[in-house]
Amino acid sequence: MLPLIPYPTTMNLSGGTCRFNPDTLVFQEQSTLPHEGYHLSITPTQTVLAFADDAGRFYGEQTLQQLTSPDGTVPLGEIEDAPRFSWRGFMIDSSRHIQTVDEIKAFIAAAARYKLNVFHWHLCDDQGWRFESERYPRLNEIGAFRNGWGFGNPNPERYGGLFTKAQIRDIIAFCAARHITVVPEIDMPGHSAAVLKSYPHLSCIGDAADVPTGAGVFSSVLCAGKEETFEFCCGILEEVMDLFPGKYIHIGGDEVPKDNWDACPLCQKRIADEGLKDSEDLQGYFTARICAFLREHGKTPIGWNEVLNAGICPQDMVATKWWDRENRCDAFANSGGKIIMEETAHVYLDYDYHRTPLRQTYSYDLQPDTLTAAGKQNVLGIEAPIWTEWVETFSRMGYMCFPRLLAVAELGWCGKAPTDYPAFRQRAEAQRAALDALGVTMAPAEDWDPEDT
Ligand SMILES: [Zn+2]
């Protein structure tokens, strides 16, 4: 078994090897190959890499790199390969703890090696705003900082910072060179404590509580009764669209406590004026308005699965299935909506290995039978987030994400697990040196499946 991740779709190998000579590598455009697909043919005299597009060429090169042994030899034969899913994503939370540009790039380089193609960037949350804004400078000065380094840490040291527009452009270009699309997330109307500390007038009750220094779901939500809230959200999204060239923008929508809306005269007036049922419906109204704005600008909105709660989610919105107690994503996909599989039990990389062993990530079924045949076709793919409430350092991030992100990459590329689990573990362990070279530290193998030993 070759130590490849993700494992190629079809391999016909002769059993022999030869020394790889880069001078004999021939690139061939072949329009009949699928998008992102490639064909590698290795003989003792030459290596031919055929592809239909630049992404296919890039993925063929990644495979060739993984195929090359430390002694410089490659196996002889043919590999024909293409991904099962178009969405093979990872999410980084830069709000709870921020990373450096170099750390983000190291992580992206590692993800690209395994043919992941979406970087979902969680750029703001209650505990810190991380996107430099020209129109709303108080976000940079106030929302980007909190009094406390490390959650639950009594040390009152000021913590924070943000990514400047130049840094973000640099990261977008770094991703583009590796065929990774960046999907920015501006979470609204919940998870907005950092926004409300900066601009208290956007809250229902003039809420200006400090930017929180601990984990949790906070009642600091944007007031959906005020027009200023929509002006702010659209203003920020315009800045986001100026910067991020991709088609998708994530607008969050998760964990929105309704207490303030229930008590707010302006929110209640909006509910009455719009003929809405309750505050849950008001979130549906909020989401629909933001989606319409993004659609006017040619963008496709994405939201966490709570955007489906009101039952009035626009059909062209993409839902991220993370914790879907009522299984609304299934009904949404079965009726034509697109979904991304990102469930806590399998791919939440901030959960420790006792809670989510590698085996459990690798067994994730992206097209369960709760979906109809048509619904299964509406699964765009898989994504795994690393939430950073308890992930303060980049080395901790590497430990939590690898090798579980390797399982995510393989499921996204292959659909179902292509080899048995012990073989996957061996292939994952074989990645350690390459990840080390990229500056990403994988968890030791004895930690991957704690209950198995
Ligand atoms: Zn309100």
Overall description:
The protein has 17 helices and 17 strands. The protein is globular. A hairpin with a 4-residue loop joins strand 3 (38-42) and strand 4 (47-51). It has an 8-stranded parallel beta sheet with strand order 12-7-6-17-16-15-14-13. The mean pLDDT is 96. It is an alpha/beta fold and 453 residues long. The longest helix has 18 residues, at 279-296. It folds into 2 domains: 10-81, Chitobiase, domain 2 (2-Layer Sandwich); 87-452, Glycosidases (TIM Barrel, Alpha-Beta Barrel), CATH 3.20.20. Helix 2 packs parallel to helix 4 (165-176) and helix 6 runs parallel beside helix 9. The chain has helices at residues 54-67, 101-113, 137-143, 165-176, 193-198, 227-243, 259-263, 265-273, 279-296, 328-334, 344-347, 358-362, 373-377, 394-401, 404-414, 421-429, 432-438; strands at 10-19, 25-29, 38-42, 47-51, 73-81, 87-93, 118-122, 124-125, 128-129, 145-147, 158-160, 181-185, 248-250, 300-304, 318-321, 338-341, 379-386.
Task: Name the features.
single chain; 453 residues; alpha/beta; Chitobiase, domain 2; TIM Barrel; 8-stranded parallel β-sheet; binds zinc ion
Topology:
Blueprint: E1 10-19, E2 25-29, E3 38-42, E4 47-51, H1 54-67, E5 73-81, E6 87-93, H2 101-113, E7 118-122, E8 124-125, E9 128-129, H3 137-143, E10 145-147, E11 158-160, H4 165-176, E12 181-185, H5 193-198, H6 227-243, E13 248-250, H7 259-263, H8 265-273, H9 279-296, E14 300-304, E15 318-321, H10 328-334, E16 338-341, H11 344-347, H12 358-362, H13 373-377, E17 379-386, H14 394-401, H15 404-414, H16 421-429, H17 432-438
Parallel strand pairs: 2-4, 6-7, 6-17, 7-12, 13-14, 14-15, 15-16, 16-17
Antiparallel strand pairs: 1-5, 3-4, 3-5, 8-9, 10-11
Helix pairs in contact: 2-4, 6-9
The structure holds zinc ion (ZN).
Residues 204, 223-225, 261, 264, 266-267 line the site of zinc ion.
